Structure formats: structure tokens, C-alpha cells
Amino acid sequence: MNTINDFLEKPITQESQMIKLDMDGLGQLNTLFLNGNVSMPSFMGVSPKIKKNQIWSVKFEYLDYEGEQKKSKHPIMVLLTSDCEDLDNETQFVRGCPISPFTEMAADNEQKCDDPSIVGFPFIVETWNEQPMLTDILEKYVADFYADVREIPCNLNQEQQRFREIEISNALFLNNSVSAYIKELERSNNFSFSVDVSFADYIRTKHMPQFNLENPNLVELPIGEEYATAAKTGNLLTDNDCIDFETENLPFRIEIRKKRIGFVITIIPKLEVCLKSGSGEEIIGSSNTERVVFNNLKKGLYTIASPLSNEIITVRLK
Fold first, then answer.
1. Structural domains of the chain, count
2. DSSP designation for 39
3. What is the pLDDT of residue 186?
4. Given this model, what pLDDT does residue 12 score?
5. CA distances, 317 to each of 20, 28, 153, 191, 263 (Å)
6. In which residue ranges of the chain is pLDDT below 70?
7. Rounded to whole angstroms, what are the CA distances from 121 to 36, 80, 107, 166, 264?
8. Distance between CA 162 and CA 159 in Å, rounded?
9. Which domain holds residue 146?
10. Is 225 inside any structural domain?
11. I want to staple 287 with a disulfide (CB 3.0 to 4.6 A). Which of 123, 139, 230, 292 is the partner?
């Protein structure tokens, strides 16, 4: 099998580092992919507004709207081919084409950049692999780049055709961010709100039935999902009730409430924690002697870091 295609089909593992690269220009693979050491430009910690004709790196893994932790086989960069579009008041998506350093696989009329100063290596723009993706899986702005992203029919040899098939399959990682959102949206009317939590090997989704109903509709849930503890009491549920996560898997108790003005995350007991939004913005909370509270949060992804663990807790409010 072609060395490039063999590499792309397999996730990055210790074994994948044993692949021997005997093609001109592929000696940079370990740097570009296995270590991901592509230098990003600095913007004093502030990323520019997401828009068409930008190149962004993509998070290597993310918690999707169905509560599943998705991991990419390899680091991904994308050239955005659209501006942001709204899915709801707090969720946006863009369209983009992955870029690839494997210029050896380019067709005769491929969109190709030979200037390594743009992203750290020459690349091709996979105009035949445009995908929708949520903006919250974009990680770092890399550069502006203008390309004709119209797909032009061309003749491919067998290895080029296989290369495209593999890349399209790998790009489902991007597409899944939107498709999972749509699937979750279809059943969200059954709940007042839901929360996904991911921490190391612990992944759990909990749902709050509709508030202020004498007999809320409790639909059957798949494995890995459950209703909030408050929903199991049989009492009338209000916005004072919470979805709670308290288990030996987690270093502290987490409570989430949904108020009219937004979500509230409470950490018990009081300790030094750092809550960040999906865009990396740190959120300042308030505290008393017993707890730390973060108010007025929007739907979306958040991370919680604390001195009690080296692992980051990922929370999706939905």
C-alpha cells in the first residue's frame, strides 16, 4: 500500500511512529503530525473573529452533542470556505476544507500552496472534502489564505483516489460535530436541559425533565445516559432543581441549574478552580465558605481545571 495512505488510515499510536518514510519530503511527518509542532502566530492570547478564508487548527478531540468523546486519527487544519452561520442563538457552524501536507498526492489541477511560511509546510487544499463543523471545535487561528475552492473534475490514479477516500472518511470527525448537534436537537424537547461530563474515562450524560409539569414525559434513555437525581423523587421540578455529578470518578461535586438568564455551575466544596469557555475565555465566579458559583452561562462547552487532578473536566451544557 502507498506509504501515505497507510499512515493516514491508522490513528497515531506508538506503532505508527515505526512507519518508515522513503519518499522525498516526507521526513517531516514526525514533526508535523506525530508531535504536532507547527508554530502558530501569536495574537496576544486573542483569536480573530472566525470568517471565510482563514486557516484554523482543529481540536484533537471534543465532546460532541450526543455525549461522546471524539478523537481524530491525526491533527487537522482547515481552510474556512464560509463565514459563521447560526444553528441557534448560541451555536454556530462554518464550512471548511482540510489542508494536507501530502502534496505528492495532488492531482494536476489541485489547489496547492508551495510556500512553507503560511502554516509551516507546503500543502494542498482538499476542495473535494468540504465539511460543516461547529465553531467550538476550532482551536487556533493560523493564517489567512485565499484559494479557489471550486471542485474541478480531474483524472486520478488509484493511489490518489484511495487518498481522497481516506481523507473524506477521516473528515467525518469534523462533520460529526454538526450531525450530533442535529440528532440531539431532535430529542431536546423531551428535556428542560441536559449536561454531558467527560473526565478521564468517565463520560456521563444526564437530563432534566420539563419543569413545572405534574407528570413529565420520561422517555427511555440509551446506555450511558440517565435522569437527574431530582427527577427520581416524583416531586414537581423547578429551576431550583439541579443536575448533579458526584462520584468517585470526579474530584468534587458539580451541580448545574438552568435559570431564565442562563446556566449556573456550582462546585462543592470551595476550592481553586479555573472554568473556561469553549473559546478558552476564563470565567470568573463567586464563592462563599462552602462552594464556588459561576452564573449566567450560555449553552456550550466548558472546561474545569483544579489542583486536585491533572485531568481536565469537560462539561457541555445543552
1. 2
2. P
3. 86
4. 54
5. 44, 40, 43, 12, 8
6. 1-2, 11-46
7. 12, 18, 18, 21, 44
8. 5
9. 3-170
10. yes
11. 292
